[in-house]
């Protein structure tokens, strides 16, 4: 996925902003509060709607905008040779959501729910997976830099959503270990029983030999 263009209207800090992304790595520089994180949030909001915003709907609209001013984000991305154009908006006092999606200039979905479903189908990545892999908030990176070697490892597991998988794997290993210990005890008991049976068979064989000798002696007499 390659970002091409991003347009924001009354989205959080930005009354109006238009950005174009060139090939290669893009760096966003600015002082604290300049709106760097807002740009990234606008991209996430275009892709996943209100799920990607940390604020309630009424706080997404720029503080200088009027109630009649719509909040709008338009994002254009490339997927191979195809181009996706995503447009989301919230209008009026109730911040009614609108959305439409176009593929190579042809509209293929309308309405927030339909656009959400179509985007996940095309991108093949859910909102949860996107937030755990492609998207990292500033506080997450700051916390990561403060950690030591082991801390970084654990924090990355948490950041990527692998912590639960690790815990689940540990529980499975513990369960397997307990099952193996139980099987070991069962086999040890079985071997003990086999040893007892073997001993009884040996004693029975000796008793049989003794009985046969007694019979032979009785026959001779």
What does it look like?
With 221 residues, this protein is an alpha+beta fold. The protein has a domain at 2-124: Rossmann fold, CATH 3.40.50. Helix content is 52%, strand content 22%. The chain contains seven helices and six strands. Strands 2-1-3-4-5-6 form a six-stranded antiparallel beta sheet. α5 runs antiparallel to α6. The longest helix has 58 residues, at 163-220. It is rod-shaped and about 125 Å long. The N and C termini lie far apart (105 Å). The model has no long low-confidence stretch (mean pLDDT 81).
What top-tier CATH class of one domain fits best?
Alpha Beta
Q: Based on the coordinates given, report the CATH architecture of one domain.
A: 3-Layer(aba) Sandwich
Q: Could you say what the CATH topology of one domain is called?
A: Rossmann fold
Q: Which structural class best describes the helix and strand composition?
A: alpha+beta
Number of helices: 7
The CATH superfamily of one domain bears the name: P-loop containing nucleotide triphosphate hydrolases
The poorly predicted ranges are: none
Counting DSSP E segments of at least 2 residues, the number of strands comes to: 6
How much of the residues is beta strand, in percent?
15-25%
Radius of gyration: 35 Å
Residues in helices, as a percent range: 40-55%
Mean pLDDT: 81
Give the CA-CA distance, first to last residue.
Answer: 105 Å
